[in-house]
Amino acid sequence: MSGVRPAAGAPVRPAPMERGGYNERSRLQAGGGAHGLPVIARAFERMPLGDGPLTIADYGCAQGRNSLAPISATIAEIRARLGVDAPVSVVHTDQPDNDFATLFALLRDSEDSYLREPNVFASAVGRSFYEQVLPSESVTFGWCSYAIHWLSGAPVASAGHIWGRLTTGEIRRAFERRSADDWRMFLTHRAAELQPGGCLVVVQPSMPGHEPSTFPMLMGWAQAELDAMAEDGTLRRSEAARMTVLCYERYPADVRAPFADGDFRGLVLVEDFLNDLPDPFWGAYQATGDAETLADKYVGFFQAPFRPSLLAALDPDRDAGFRKAFSDRLETGLRNRILAEPQPLMTPLAVHVSLIQKQI
Ligand SMILES: C[S@@+](CC[C@H](N)C(=O)[O-])C[C@H]1O[C@@H](n2cnc3c(N)ncnc32)[C@H](O)[C@@H]1O
What we know:
Layout lengths: L26 H8 L2 H10 L7 E6 L8 H15 L5 E7 L5 H10 L10 E7 L12 E7 L23 H25 E13 L8 H17 L5 H6 L9 H5 L10 E11 L2 H9 L2 H22 L7 H21 L8 E10 L2
Parallel strand pairs: 1-2, 1-4, 2-3, 4-5
Antiparallel strand pairs: 5-7, 6-7
Helix pairs in contact: 2-3, 6-11, 9-10, 10-11
Bound molecules: S-adenosylmethionine.
The site of S-adenosylmethionine has 23 residues, from α1.
């Protein structure tokens, strides 16, 4: 179809999360990640733990707040098996331009930091998880939460919508293909990195199977605000056309597809499940009737992960003043829509959890 062109000029990688701000505005992702916590114990029940080095890898850590609980739970499993003398290395990985400084400050300062435990050592790798980021057979246990739905790049130069799931036809199919290829690529590299018998828990946002979610409304509103800015000349058409949030949520069938014939590159899908994720902001609004707070929360949820992707699509000649004005206008537009008609905008979302083990 004519709308699909090679992805020249399109975002080649996702923009990092908002510097300094993601930790404060990722409560929803933390709630989603919590669905994977009980699976960590089940992973350790199946895993051999030899005398070798113990390495926990955290794929797509952002600024780290949401990694503290799963990494602490993982260390607790190791301590229960091997005691405090076994040194544990925790490697947080993300894109090179991730805000690692905030991560390391958090590890130093937070009461919840796993570095308060003896014999635990933290480090980081700034490299895409669509490549091998750690030595072969070096990872004891891997955790990846709310990261693998970020695609490796835009499958088309101009998707026509900021969110791939609201595209249609050939463009939608291009997103589907990229998402399927990326999932296989991610698994291929983890298969190389995991020690034999090592496990990986992947938590990813999904779509509820049984009822429509209201989430497309929020993404549609954001698109409408951008369209209005392109219409009145605030945004150049070429900038608006490049604005794509490179997230593409997978259904359980998409997650299972590489394992359809059994193992994939020596990895076995041990268990997977889909849970509804209640909209925490709408629940709070129903109790308080505080529409300003509801708007703050929804706008914050949108801005912290997605605004950097929109800003990255602006032409290089756009100065800080323009970027701020653009950002403020988008925020005000979204806020006004929410205040005019408070309604659930993430009801429900869904979270998918998979436990994957490398064959011994
Ligand atoms: C929404 S945050 C999730 C952070 C955290 N794991 C959580 O549960 O809240 C997604 C993270 O994935 C990272 N990410 C996206 N694509 C990536 C890639 N190809 N390689 C490494 N990290 C990536 C982003 O930079 C971002 O920090």
